[in-house]
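README: folding subset

This subset contains proteins for which both the sequence and a predicted C-alpha cell string are available. Records are stored as plain text. Below is the entry for AEC family transporter (307 residues), shown exactly as it appears on disk.
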Amino acid sequence: MLTSFLSTLYSVFLPISLPVIAGALLKRFRGMETRPLSTVSLYIMSPALIFETLAKAEITSADVMVTAAFCILNIVVLWLLCLAAGRLLKLSQPEQAGLALTTLFTNSVNYGLPLVLLAFGQAGLDNASVYVIIQIIIINTFGVYLAARSHFSAVQAVKSIFMLPSIYAALLAVLIRITESTLPDALETGISMLSAAYAPLALVILGAQMIGTREGAEASPVSARGFWSGMTMRMIIAPLTAWLLLALLSVDGTLFAVILILSAMPAAVNAVILAEQYDAAPRLVSKCILWTTLASFVLLPVLIGIL
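--- output ---
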C-alpha cells in the first residue's frame, strides 16, 4: 500500500505539482491575475482539448449513456444528502446553498483532466471528456439554481450553456464522428498544439487560484459546522456515493476508475463565482475549495493506488 502510494505521488502528483507550485508563486510574489489566463483556457485551450479528445475517442455509446446516467443520479443523491445535512446541522439558507455548491461540483477541468491523463493515459482522458461536458451543462443550470434559488431564471441558465465554446467543440466533434469526416492536416496540427497547452496552463491557474482562495478564506472566518460539513461531504461522502452508484450501474474497468476519481476531486473553483454572485456563503465556499484541494494531494494518491 505504501509503495503504491509513493509510486502514485512520484509518477502522477510530482508532474502535476510543478505547474501548480509555479502558479502559486507567481500569484504570491508577482500578483499574477488569473482572469486573462482563465479566459484563454476556457475559450481556446479547453475547447481544443474537448474537440480533439471526443473526435478521436475510443468510446462506445453505452459508455456515454452510463456516464450521463451516473452524473444525473449522483447530482440528485448528493443534493438530497446536502438538504438533509443542512437541516440536521441547522445551517442558514446561504450556508446550505454553499454546502451544495461545494459538494456537488468538482474541479474536474483544471485539476481532473490533467490528473486523469497522467494516471490513466489517453483511454482515461477519452472517458473523462464525456463526464466533463455533462458536468459543464449541469453546473450552468442546476448550479445556478442552487446558488440563486429565489431569483433563478431557467432561460438565463440555458443561455449560459450556449455561451460556452466547449459545448460547440463537443457538438462539432460528434458531427465529425457521425459523418466520418477528417480535418485538414494543418488544422488538426494546430488544434493538437492548443490541446497540448491546456494541461500545464490549467494547473498554473489552479495554483494561483489556491493562493487567491486562501487569502479570501483567511480574511473572513466561517462557521465550523459549515466548514466541516463541506469538507466531509466533498471528500468522504461524495466518493463513497459515487462508488455505490457505479457499482449499482455495473460500471467497471477504466470507466469506473476515471468517474470515481473525477467524483472525488476537490470543490470546483467556479463554485465560488456562483456563490459570490448570488450571496451563497462565498466565504464558506472559498475555504472549502482551499482545504479540499490541499486534502486531495493526500487522498487522491491513496484512491488511485487502490484502483
